[in-house]
Design goal:
This protein has about 120 residues and is α+β, with helices and mostly antiparallel strands. The chain has helices at about 1-15, 50-75, 90-105; strands spanning about 25-35, 40-45, 80-85.
Length: about 120
Protein backbone atom coordinates (compact mmCIF):
# COMPACT_ATOMS: atom_id res chain seq x y z
CA UNK A 1 0.00 0.00 0.00
CA UNK A 2 2.86 2.38 0.79
CA UNK A 3 4.25 1.96 -2.73
CA UNK A 4 0.83 2.75 -4.26
CA UNK A 5 0.58 5.90 -2.13
CA UNK A 6 4.15 6.87 -3.13
CA UNK A 7 3.30 6.52 -6.82
CA UNK A 8 0.10 8.56 -6.49
CA UNK A 9 1.83 11.34 -4.54
CA UNK A 10 4.73 11.40 -7.01
CA UNK A 11 2.30 11.64 -9.94
CA UNK A 12 0.50 14.56 -8.30
CA UNK A 13 3.74 16.39 -7.54
CA UNK A 14 5.07 15.97 -11.06
CA UNK A 15 1.85 16.89 -12.89
CA UNK A 16 -0.58 18.55 -10.50
CA UNK A 17 1.52 20.79 -8.27
CA UNK A 18 1.63 24.18 -9.98
CA UNK A 19 2.93 26.31 -7.13
CA UNK A 20 5.67 28.71 -8.30
CA UNK A 21 7.22 28.74 -4.83
CA UNK A 22 8.51 25.19 -5.36
CA UNK A 23 11.66 25.84 -7.37
CA UNK A 24 14.00 22.99 -6.40
CA UNK A 25 13.89 19.46 -7.75
CA UNK A 26 11.30 17.57 -5.69
CA UNK A 27 11.35 13.76 -5.44
CA UNK A 28 9.26 11.36 -3.36
CA UNK A 29 11.77 8.89 -1.91
CA UNK A 30 9.64 6.74 0.40
CA UNK A 31 6.34 6.38 2.21
CA UNK A 32 5.80 4.80 5.62
CA UNK A 33 2.29 3.89 6.71
CA UNK A 34 0.85 2.88 10.04
CA UNK A 35 -0.61 -0.62 10.35
CA UNK A 36 -4.17 0.66 10.21
CA UNK A 37 -3.31 2.64 7.01
CA UNK A 38 -4.71 5.85 8.51
CA UNK A 39 -1.42 7.80 8.53
CA UNK A 40 1.21 8.12 5.84
CA UNK A 41 4.57 9.77 6.25
CA UNK A 42 5.86 10.83 2.84
CA UNK A 43 9.59 11.42 2.59
CA UNK A 44 10.66 13.92 -0.05
CA UNK A 45 14.05 15.01 -1.30
CA UNK A 46 14.40 18.63 -2.35
CA UNK A 47 17.50 19.67 -4.24
CA UNK A 48 18.06 23.33 -3.53
CA UNK A 49 18.94 25.79 -0.80
CA UNK A 50 17.70 25.50 2.76
CA UNK A 51 15.14 28.22 2.03
CA UNK A 52 13.85 26.27 -0.98
CA UNK A 53 13.58 23.12 1.14
CA UNK A 54 11.63 24.94 3.85
CA UNK A 55 9.32 26.55 1.29
CA UNK A 56 8.70 23.22 -0.44
CA UNK A 57 7.71 21.58 2.86
CA UNK A 58 5.34 24.46 3.64
CA UNK A 59 3.70 24.15 0.20
CA UNK A 60 3.39 20.38 0.58
CA UNK A 61 1.82 20.81 3.99
CA UNK A 62 -0.73 23.13 2.40
CA UNK A 63 -1.75 20.61 -0.29
CA UNK A 64 -1.77 17.59 2.06
CA UNK A 65 -5.56 17.73 2.52
CA UNK A 66 -6.23 17.83 -1.22
CA UNK A 67 -3.69 15.08 -1.76
CA UNK A 68 -5.30 12.94 0.95
CA UNK A 69 -8.61 13.11 -0.91
CA UNK A 70 -6.96 12.34 -4.24
CA UNK A 71 -5.09 9.32 -2.84
CA UNK A 72 -8.25 7.97 -1.20
CA UNK A 73 -10.23 8.21 -4.45
CA UNK A 74 -7.47 6.92 -6.73
CA UNK A 75 -6.76 3.89 -4.54
CA UNK A 76 -10.45 3.36 -3.63
CA UNK A 77 -9.75 3.37 0.08
CA UNK A 78 -12.47 3.40 2.70
CA UNK A 79 -10.36 5.76 4.81
CA UNK A 80 -7.87 8.05 3.11
CA UNK A 81 -4.61 8.28 5.05
CA UNK A 82 -3.62 11.50 6.75
CA UNK A 83 -0.49 12.64 4.94
CA UNK A 84 2.52 14.23 6.59
CA UNK A 85 5.61 15.29 4.66
CA UNK A 86 9.16 14.94 5.95
CA UNK A 87 12.43 15.98 4.39
CA UNK A 88 14.67 13.08 3.33
CA UNK A 89 18.31 14.10 3.48
CA UNK A 90 19.67 10.71 2.40
CA UNK A 91 20.05 11.75 -1.26
CA UNK A 92 22.07 14.84 -0.29
CA UNK A 93 24.19 12.76 2.12
CA UNK A 94 24.85 10.17 -0.60
CA UNK A 95 25.92 12.89 -3.04
CA UNK A 96 28.29 14.35 -0.45
CA UNK A 97 29.81 10.94 0.29
CA UNK A 98 30.22 10.34 -3.44
CA UNK A 99 32.07 13.67 -3.77
CA UNK A 100 34.33 12.85 -0.83
CA UNK A 101 35.15 9.41 -2.22
CA UNK A 102 35.91 10.89 -5.64
CA UNK A 103 38.27 13.40 -4.06
CA UNK A 104 40.21 10.55 -2.40
CA UNK A 105 41.04 9.09 -5.81
CA UNK A 106 42.50 12.33 -7.15
CA UNK A 107 46.22 12.89 -6.63
CA UNK A 108 47.03 15.83 -4.35
CA UNK A 109 47.96 19.05 -6.10
CA UNK A 110 51.55 20.15 -5.59
CA UNK A 111 52.69 23.74 -5.71
CA UNK A 112 56.43 23.10 -6.08
CA UNK A 113 58.03 22.11 -9.34
CA UNK A 114 59.64 18.65 -9.36
CA UNK A 115 63.29 18.70 -8.31
CA UNK A 116 65.94 17.79 -10.80
CA UNK A 117 68.28 15.17 -9.25
CA UNK A 118 70.76 15.08 -12.16
CA UNK A 119 74.38 16.09 -11.61
CA UNK A 120 75.67 18.44 -14.29
Amino acid sequence: MAEAVREEVAAFLSHGLKDPRVTGLLTVTAVEMTRDLRHATVYVSVMGTEAEKTTALEVLGGVAGHLRSRVGKALRLQFAPEIQFRLDESVARAARIETLLASLHQPPATDAAPEDDRDD
